[in-house]
Structure formats: structure tokens, C-alpha cells
Amino acid sequence: MPFAAAGLLALSLAAVVGPSGPASAAPTDAAFNNGTGALNVNYAGYMSKHDIVYNRPNTNPLHGLTVGNGRTGAMVWQQNGLSMQVSGVDLAQQSTYAAGIVNLFSNPQLDSGYTTYQQRLSLYDGTLTTRYDGNRTVTIMGSPNSEVMGIHVEDTRPGVSSVGLDLSLWDPNTVQNIADVPNLQTWRTVSTFADAAGVGLSRGQADPNNFGYTLAATVEGASYTSQVVNGTRVRLNITPTSSYTIWFTAASRINSPGLNSVTQARNQLAAVKSTGYNTTLNNYRNWWHNFWARSFVQYSNAGGDADYLENAYYLATYMIAAGGHGNYPLHFINGVFRATQDNSKWSNGYWYWNQRDVYNSFLASNHVDLISTFNRLYSRNYNALKAYTQTRYGIDGLWVPETMGWDGNARGTINSDYVNDTMSTGTEAAYNMYLQYRYTNDTAYLRDVAYPYMREAVKFYQRKLSVDGSGRYYMASSNAHETYWDVRNAITDLAAVRLLFPLTIQVSTQLGLDSGLRAGWQNVVNNLAPYQIQNGAYLPHDPPSSPTRNGENVALELVWPYDQTGIGYPDYQTAVNTWNVRPFPYGNVWANDHVHAARLGLGQQAFQGMRTMLQKYQNYPNGMTNNTNGVFEYLGIHLAAMNESLMQSYNDKIRVFPAIPSDSSFNGKFTLLAKDGFLVSSEREASETKYVGLRSLHGKQARVVNPWGTQEIRVRRTSDNAILATTTANEVTFATAANTVYVVERTAKPLTSYSATTLSGSANQGVKSLSGTASTLGIGTPGGGGPGPSTQVSLRSRANNMYVQAGSGGAGPLQASVTAIGLWEQFDMMDLGGGNIALRARVNNQLVSADNAGANPLIANKAAVGSWETFALIRNSDGTVSLRAQVNNMYVCAENAGAAPLIANRTAIGPWEKFDLITS
């Protein structure tokens, strides 16, 4: 992954409204449908509890809610009406370049003179709806399988005198070329049009690589005139009416006939306008409904923390899928959702480490079409990579650069010591292609795409490895990813060989190809250098130790994604030891510790890991992060961690609930896809797994681990209730027929002993919080309906207008651990509305509750107020702030005997304590 400097402080949010409760169910019922082979779920009802809701207008672009149709996305906030930054995945090889800003405004503005407000991201429908009172509704949606999005306005207010829509760009002269744009000037050149059909802005029109785009818009249901405001802004002047739809597109040149994005944009808008809003909305909703119906997870508990993790699962799935259906993958740091204009880093290529975090979960969640977009980036560059491997290494084989450009170029790799000697990326790419076959049973894809990639990656390693005098193969020097440079026998290389060579031999035999190569490949496997072990744990490379250059837990690559160890393997304890002593726990936004924990059956650790990653990196109420090393990795890897906690099939064994938290109230349910095309469903409640249901898609042999240990189980075919097998063994293997449903159940308590149910839920209406953290989803109302988010703040006291430092004798402005934090005391602040705020201290960037022994971060009446201390906040004219504590909703002044809400120099400052307030 891109190198990241340590010590970046995460921006925190805070809220106190808990998550919605779990869907109604009981230990005595089950939701499995014997006919469909999946769970009975009212998806509309169930997923509505995971909607993201803003109950007051959000003016911060970074907190904007996200809406997309698979190729084009918009991040929406309130500024001069409604504003949104729009982007698409196929617009530029420099993936940071965004399409531009769309701004809807009116006179009077939509957000003037209202008493009730709600903005809702409906995950099930894929829509973003903003309601002001009962007379203004704005729905943002899209046209499926296109680059077109829509803004539908219902505005019945009298006296609206004007409506406008602007398309604009930032100053194009600020665009910087990192590595991969041959003609920067064409990206600084903007052309416009404004005519009876609509308005548009274009740039990149002379890009030699055929990138570039046109951002264009038109109107359905209202008359309008078109206007060029200036060289980077065009406008639609819309005649006010009670109902109209604005259609806009980010039409990419590379996907346009004749590379003409202007004509493409015009045609796209004309087509959607002809189809009409109602039909397009219905098609769009159905597209998302069909998407969600392919799988299901429930991960809940009585405390609500697991439900928050589940909410993050569905939100992350939506955000990735909303930009994941283009010609190019959703970039891990840019995607189609950002509010940073044309600015971001790491946009010059695709780092495989980071992209796998984004995509690898979608095999299990039955969205192979998403991961196939990722795989196509590598398979279509097969010839270019083969040629470059010969040029760089003189080897007839396939080396894949860890940092790869859109066309297979290695410019981002060979110029970076972090990645220039990484050899294992080709194996990961080949293995993901092989897995695509294993989940789809597409033998043509195996023969024509996956196997050639596997074969050439194996040939590269066969030539790249050295051989000592005893015939042992070893890697003389390479990078163990970005963390250990130029070391001997990087564990990633040894794992790559042990993974890919046997698979390639197996597929070669299956396809009847390259029989003359197999013996040589097997010889490498038989004589490969061993992994190094020290103190019972795997080392990332052979001794001596190498300096660490990044924060990856490289030795755990064996566990995932190389699938070389896990539950039931002979080296299981060594793998667990390796996890326990890993050097960089949850060290960055791309950390995958929780996936490793799940693969090792460490359920409580996987649960805590998902919490930890959200606590550290889910900083914004829209689910996104302020970590500039990426946005989508921690979202994608959260999906993988939850999937692997609920169901595993990586070693050709189906194992349900392998890594669940040690919480008797845990309630888990899922329908997920296993290798060889088994749609697997199971439910666990009250510490009991109820059954394992399978729908066989391809008629392969199934192998299921007995979730009840040695209890007798049986395999029943649901179509005729025939019992196919009975056993007390710890596994059962049975043949299946395509499109047939089977149930593995306890003989003593079969599925029929449970009553039937359908899973559902009720719509979320407010803010959710992850207890013990500052992570929230949603924004509350200023005076009620759930507190709004705020940020991490630092406070420093003033006495007689002089700063009083935390270590200054006698003053002690705040008494959270001053030695740990330093001169600035750090707190989470949350806006409670009505001029009141709540504060909670941080020590070493960890939340410290008010009753935490020894820390005592705030000394207002803790018994009355609880872990969050409530204060009135006054901003003073000199730039300081004053705080006054509330106890039982009554103000307590600083000199009030016994309360002492703050302990800065009270005699010097007086009853109000004055502080500098810095938002981090």
C-alpha cells in the first residue's frame, strides 16, 4: 500500500443515540426458505434500519452523503441550495480528476423557512432524498447501467421566482500530473456548450490515452434556457414549476462511440429524458433491489455494537457498488465519492494491496461481477505485462507491478523503493482470477483467462528463484511487501509459490494443457525453502532482521489472502502466535488484522477488530474517513472481516459461524456464497446454530463442517425430504444437483422443529453511535432528535489573558493525563443543541470515560451526568471560549461550592472558565 507517515490524528465524531435494535426473531423460529434456498427477508423493511439520516442540513462537503448508480457518483451537501461533487470511474487515467460540481439553487432557497428537515440515504432503493417540511422534496437517483444521474424536485411553495442549476469546475490550472497523464494541457483546457438541448463542460478531449469526459445536464418537466456563465461554469435557468427532473451525466470518452463524449452526453440525456423520471426511477430501484437480494447478513447483539458494525457493512457495500460497475475499478482512495476538488494523493496507479481490501469480499457476498471488474484490469493487460517482464527481467513469464497503471505500466513501481522489488503481486492477481472461476464455474474463463495468467506467473517464479547446491529453491532478494526491503525468502514469495504452483498443476491437468511443465513445477514445490519460525511465530523473511519501512503484518499473509493456514491446519498454533505478536496491530486504514482473526477462529478478536477499525478510521457521519491514505480500503476490509466471521469456504470446506464474538446475546444470520457455487444460509441465536442450508448452483460436491461437533447430523434434500447422509463425524461430504436445495441439520432437532419467520426491521430516524468510540452515522437536529456530530477539540486555559499550560504549577487547567497528552488536552466534543455541548476526554488517543479510575478527565458531577460531561459553550469576542457545567440540567458556576466543574485558575478568570478551542 502507499507509504503513510505515522502519528496522524484521526478526526472524531460523537453521538449518544444508540443503533436500532436487531430485527425481530426468536430462538424458536427460522427464516430459511426450502424453495429458494435462502433466508426469507423483507429487504425493504430490514435495510431501512440501516438508512443514513441527517436531521439537519450538512454544510461540510466532507460529510456529504453519497449516492451513485454503479458508474457515476455524487457526494451531496447544503451550500447555496444543494451542491454535490460528481465523479465517474472511467473519466481519467489520473483517477483523482473528478467531473465537477453540480449546484441546484432557487429563490427563495430550498432550505429557507422550513421547520422540519430530513435527508435520507435509502440503501435499499439507492436514493438520497431531502425533505423540507411537507412541500419540498429533492430525490437524487440514477439511471442503471449508465453514466446518468437525476435530481427530481417536488416544490409546491408559492412565490418561487427562479430556479437554477450550475455545472462548474475548479481552476483547471491547479491540476497536477503525478505520473500517468501524457498531456496535462488537455486536462487544463475546458470547452463549454449551452443550447436548446442543455449545457455541458468538457475537458481531456485531446488525451492521447482516450480518456476525458463531458459533464452535461438537461431538464425534464420544465422549460429552461441555457447559459455559459464563464469558461468553467454553465447554467440552466429553469422556469419554476411544482415538479421537474434535472438529468446530468459524466460521460467518459473511453466509453463513447468515436471517443466523442460530447455527443455521448447529449445522447445519454436525450435517452433518459425520453424514458422519463418515473420509469427510470423504477428501473433504478429494481436494479438496487436485485443487487441486495443476492446475499444477506445479520450481525447483532443486545448491546447494539454489533448492529453498528452491520450498518457499516451495508453502507460500505453500497458505496463500493455505487462506483464499482465501470470499465475500471473503483480506486481505493478516490472512488466516485470525494469532496476534495481535483486534489488527492496516490492517484497515479492501483496498489494491489489496497485494491484487494476494497474488492475481495464480493466473492462471498455473491457479487462476482464487482470483483470481475478488478480482475479485468489485470487480465486485459496480460500482453503488456508479459512484454515488460521480458524487458525488465529477461524472463518468459509474468510479473505484475504492485503499483500498476491503467494500461499495465509499472511507472509507479519501478520508481519507488517501497514496491519496486515486490514479486508476489502476480500470484495474487492470478489467484483472484482462479477464485472467480471457482465461484462461477465458468470453464471458458478458466481456460482462456485465469489459467494463462496462473501459468505465466508460475513460470516467472520458476525462473526468478535461485537454487542452492542441495537443490533447494529460495528467493535470494525481494521485498516482503512494503515493510521489509531486499530480504531473503520473503514469506510472501514462499507463500505465493506454495499457493499457486499446486493450483496451476491441478488446473493444467484438468484442462489437459502443458503436461510437460508440471514435473518442473512440482520439483519447485518439493524443494522450496521453509518458512522461518522464531519463538513459535512466523517471521516475515529469513534472518537477520530488516528495518521496517511500513506497517504491514506481512507474516500473516499466509492466513489471508494466500489461504495457506487457518482453523484445523497443522500449523494453526503457529499462525495464532503470529497474530498475537504481530508488530503493527490495526496500524493503518488498510489494516486487515480482523480478517486474519476471523480466519483463525478468533471471534472476539475479530469483533473487537472491526470496532477498532471503525473507532480509528470512521471519522465522518457519512461513514467515511479523514485518513488521506485511502477511503475505501477500511470499508472493503470490514466487509471481508464480517463475511469471514460468519462463513468460510476458502479451503473447500463450508464452515458456518467460525469466528463469532463471545457474547451470548449474539444473533447472526446470513446467506452468502461459498466456493463451487453453494449459496449457504445459516442462523445462530441464543448460542445455538439452527441449521445449514445450501442451494447448489453448479451441482458440485459439498463438504460441510459439522457445526455441532459430534452430534448426529443428516443431509436432507428439501424437494422431496430424502435423507442423503447421516453421520456423527466432524464433516459431511455429499453430491449435489444444480439448482437444488439441501439442509444439514441435527437429527435430534431438525429445521422443521422451528417455526417459520421473515426477517424485517423498522426505518432508522436518527443518529447511531458505536459505544465507547466517537464514531457515528448520521446527523441529529440542533435542539433534539439526536445530537449532532462534532469534532475532536483541544483546550488550553487562559489566566489573565495569558496561556496556562497543562504542566504549569498550580494551574492545572484540565486534569486528564497531562503527561500522556502533553500541553494540549484533547477531547471529543458533541453538539447537543440549545448551545450545549458534551465533552469526553482522550488519553493517548483513546476515549476515557468520566468514571475511569485514575484518569478523572472532567470533574463535573459524574454521577449525575455520566460518561459524557455536559457544558454550556460561549464563544468570546477575544477568540476564547467559556465553559459552564450542567448538573441535572442546572448550570453550576465555577465557584459553586462542591461542584468545581473546571479547575483552571478560578480566582483569576472568574466564574466562567476561558479556553482556546482548536478543532483538530
UniProtKB/TrEMBL annotation:
Residues 1-25 form the signal peptide. One of its GO terms (molecular function) is alpha-L-fucosidase activity. It holds the Pfam family Glyco_hydro_95_cat. Residues 774-794 are annotated as: Disordered. Keywords: Signal. Residues 301-539 form the Glycosyl hydrolase family 95 catalytic domain. InterPro entries: 6-hairpin_glycosidase_sf, 6hp_glycosidase-like_sf, Actin-crosslinking, GH95_cat, Glyco_hydro_b. GO terms for biological process: carbohydrate metabolic process. The keyword Mitochondrion does not apply. CDD domains: beta-trefoil_FSCN-like. It comes from the Bacteria. This is Glycosyl hydrolase family 95 catalytic domain-containing protein. The lineage of its organism: Bacteria, Bacillati, Actinomycetota, Actinomycetes, Micromonosporales.
